[in-house]
Hints:
The protein is an alpha/beta fold. It has helices spanning 2-14, 29-43, 55-63, 101-109, 141-154, 191-199; strands at 22-25, 49-52, 77-82, 86-87, 93-94, 111-119, 132-136, 160-163, 179-184, 204-207, 209-210, 216-221, 224-229. The chain folds into two domains: 2-123 and 211-223, 3-Layer(aba) Sandwich (Rossmann fold); 132-205, ACT domain (Alpha-Beta Plaits, 2-Layer Sandwich), CATH 3.30.70.
Amino acid sequence: MSDALKRAAAQAALALVEPGMRLGLGTGSTAKHFVDGLGARVAQGLAILCVATSEATQAQAERLRIPMTTLDETPELDLTVDGADELDGRLRLIKGGGAALLREKIVAAASRRMVVIAAAAKAVDMLGRFPLPIEVVPFGLGATRRAIVEAMASAGAAGELVLRLKDDGAPLATDGGHLILDAHLGRIPDPEALALALSQVPGVMEHGLFIGLATAAFVAGPDGVTVIGDPAASRG
Ligand code: 5RP
């Protein structure tokens, strides 16, 4: 069921893709459906140029022979389609469950539109049930951790910070060679304040709060796909 919902959300976003577009490709199991669908359309002759948000998505796109570029060659994109771990009614997101938040945020910020695709279980009234991923540099981890706890407190949030590990028990390294601390907050009463406080901590490369980036969302539930925002609207 859940996989069918992810595919339904991805299909809705595929309808936004037009010939000649420069696209950002998200990461995760929902974005994977979008990339699969895009690959099928490219095989039928659709001309597009894409930037991936992770090595995993890059590999998938290359397997599907989707024409790829980089933000160095193509610094402005028309549309990014990506999944999310949580989204609220104001299109504020938690991302990074797949450890790709840094590249995902860079690509989203370079895009005039960012459309989220998600199964309905991801839609929440208040962000925070999903642990907030915070990407940090390995140097000074203990000091960075302390500063993050203070930053969270200043924004009215508190909870355990857990270093993300791989299945073999070693710390997970992101595509950029950083570590992830997952903040188990339960609730984030003021996402804007928390985003600002975290962005001011030395050692924090990026955090998984995406605010003011998504322009629309396709949320798939058992009764169909709900649209939040305007899928045709650009940011700014
Ligand atoms: C990766 C992400 C993903 O978009 C997020 O984790 C959702 O993944 P999925 O579609 O597999 O539920 O932010 O860093």
